[in-house]
Amino acid sequence: MSNLAKRVLVAVFSVPLILLAIRQGGLCLLVFVDLVIVCGIQELFQLQKAKGWRPQRVWGTLAALAISWEFFFWGTEHIDFILVGVILLVLFPELWRRDSGSALANAGSTLLAVFYVGCLSSFLLLLRAAPSQADSGNLAILVLLSIWGTDTVAYFVGRGFGRHKLFGQISPRKSIEGSLGGIAGALVVVFAGSQTILPLLSTVNALVLGFIIAIGSQLGDLIESLFKRDAGVKDSSRIIPGHGGVLDRFDSVFCALPLAYLYLKLAGILQ
Description:
Strand 1 and strand 2 form a beta hairpin. Helix 3 packs parallel to helix 5 and helix 7 runs antiparallel to helix 8.
């Protein structure tokens, strides 16, 4: 089976389940986000290990999960306590570690993993639960669909028409043509959503949101490519057939989701 066929097959089975979890909300969505966090942070720890660092896998994973639980149960009500706790939880154990190499590299890499994977992915919980002028379930679904729309259109446009490299030193296969196609894909998805499932989303807000999601999605993809290139690996893992690892599949989500959430807050769509 070709790599493209595997990607399509995985999408056919996984996308409806993910959208169902978002639509359902509650503990169902929390379990999904926490699965992404646990798998994704282990993959990032593995990349860091390839660099010779020794991140704190257990404490780092618990700290990342604590952020998702804060967002789910209390929103951002206790986020100051959570942030202080996360930092101390990572720093204190270094005092007792022996023969662990650089404490600066270990603590820094652990905190990067906690906030990159744990914090950024947990914005899906905030987006789903936030009081909104529109249906928050449909809003979260539309954001995720537009992220996937960016990735999908960018992939096919780049594959068919890509001639000019976007960031050749980081990801040689990504092209300017593919990037522009991805932006167009996000704009179409969000605009279509504003005309169907989210009629309260104005055309201007829809277009701005689509552009922000497209840029964030592609930045997230490039950031993860930078991490993998630095670690000297092709995929973060092989857990998802045709896609690689959880980081490979959700790298776009990690950056696009928080940016979409912040714009929706600034635009007054989320209360």
